[in-house]
């Protein structure tokens, strides 16, 4: 007999057709549907992003937060799959995050304690929203116990070169940070109406979760002269620096190259200029209360630690203690102690 059946009869149904015709056993259809859904989720590369956006919408409904907070949370959460799994995609849902992913993040990113704190705070809220049990555990979220990063500043001569050679907005950026102590975020929020030439003051909106606090500070004379070239005649709402954070970084790097500091191996960041302003202003006679108000700090102790005055005072105190013994009793450093053998 032919494999197609007797004459006059169509071909017999194949194995797949017979399987489709066979009634499904209890639960089999549900299993197939779940497998199809899992395949669809794996093929959806934007699922993580959509989950992040839904999380931010829900957080906004619970308690309205500022735009800067939302932008920071979005940035921290969107970069987690790449940092935890590398360039190869694989993480699609917050429910899939495990302790192995956090361990991989620790190995891949040698961050400071503060950076881990911000990233873990955002991620933990996201996992709690997704009902991932990892969010309620304590051990996976422990922060590294390393010492804080070294605070840097540049010399007076380097600051003078950096403020003298560049032109335009690059010079205005250096002056605002190095001669008035502004943060990068405060500089980028500055608008033409915030530059009060009649009062020789600046209205500065500080950093913060909900946009920060306003403060009014006097302008350095060089800052006023440079800003006059940029904002006089501009609309009140016009930004003094219509650029992004990365654009501000490029301006500072350009100023460092033009002044020759890059060729000499001198690293300069926005916070280096701000710390340098604090140290030089205090050395020129400005007391810590005035300096705290200019920098926008919450306490005098924070200001003293920020510009390194606490370390300077400890070093000076130790030197006074050493001098109290007199020159004859001060000896050269001894060799490391080695126990004698018995």
3D architecture notes:
With 342 residues, this protein is mostly helical. It has 16 helices and three strands. The protein has two domains: 47-141; 156-319, Intergrase catalytic core (hpI Integrase, Chain A). The chain has a three-stranded antiparallel β-sheet with strand order 1-2-3. The longest helix has 17 residues, at 113-129. 21% of the residues are buried.
Concise synopsis of the structure shown:
By secondary structure, this protein is mainly alpha-helical. It is 52% helix and 4% strand.
Question: How do the helices and strands line up, and which of them pair or pack?
Answer:
Blueprint: H1 15-21, H2 28-42, H3 47-62, H4 67-78, H5 80-85, H6 99-108, H7 113-129, H8 156-164, H9 169-178, H10 184-189, E1 195-196, E2 201-205, E3 214-218, H11 221-231, H12 245-258, H13 270-283, H14 288-295, H15 300-306, H16 309-323
Antiparallel strand pairs: 1-2, 2-3
Helix pairs in contact: 3-4, 8-9, 9-11, 9-12, 14-15
Helix-strand string = HHHHHHHHHHEEEHHHHHH
Give the tally of structural domains: 2
Label the CATH architecture of the largest domain. Orthogonal Bundle
The low-confidence parts are none
The largest pleated sheet is described as: 3 strands, antiparallel
Shape: globular
Salient structural properties:
2 domains, hpI Integrase, Chain A, mainly alpha, 342 residues, three-stranded antiparallel sheet, 3 strands, 4% strand
């Amino acid at each position: 007999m032919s494999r197609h059946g007797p004459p006059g009869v169509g071909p017999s149904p194949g194995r797949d057709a017979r399987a489709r015709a066979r009634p499904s056993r209890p639960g089999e259809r549900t299993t197939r549907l779940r497998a199809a859904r899992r395949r669809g989720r794996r093929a959806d590369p934007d699922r993580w992003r959509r989950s992040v956006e839904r999380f931010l919408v829900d957080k906004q409904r619970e308690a309205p937060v500022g735009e800067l907070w939302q932008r920071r949370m979005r940035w921290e959460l969107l970069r987690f799959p790449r940092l935890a799994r590398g360039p190869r995609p694989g993480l699609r849902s917050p429910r899939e995050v495990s302790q192995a992913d956090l361990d991989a993040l620790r190995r891949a990113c040698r961050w400071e304690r503060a950076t881990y704190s911000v990233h873990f705070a955002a991620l933990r809220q996201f996992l709690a929203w997704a009902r991932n049990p990892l969010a309620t555990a304590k051990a996976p979220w422990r922060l590294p116990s390393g010492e804080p990063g070294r605070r840097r500043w540049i010399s007076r001569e380097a600051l003078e070169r950096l403020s003298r050679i560049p032109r335009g907005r690059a010079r205005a950026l250096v002056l605002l940070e190095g001669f008035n102590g502004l943060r990068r975020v405060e500089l980028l929020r500055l608008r033409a109406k915030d530059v009060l030439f009649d009062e020789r003051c600046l209205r500065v909106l500080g950093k913060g979760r909900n946009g920060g606090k306003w403060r009014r500070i006097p302008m350095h004379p060089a800052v006023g002269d440079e800003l006059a070239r940029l904002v006089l005649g501009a609309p009140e709402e016009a930004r003094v620096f219509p650029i992004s954070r990365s654009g501000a970084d490029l301006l500072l790097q350009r100023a460092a190259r033009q002044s020759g500091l890059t060729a000499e191996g001198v690293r300069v960041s926005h916070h280096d200029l701000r710390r340098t302003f604090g140290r030089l202003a205090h050395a020129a006679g400005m007391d810590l209360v005035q300096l705290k108000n200019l920098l926008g700090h919450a306490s005098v102790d924070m200001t003293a630690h920020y510009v390194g005055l606490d370390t300077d005072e400890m070093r000076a105190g130790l030197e006074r203690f050493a001098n109290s013994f007199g020159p004859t009793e001060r000896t050269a450093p001894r060799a490391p102690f080695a126990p004698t053998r018995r």
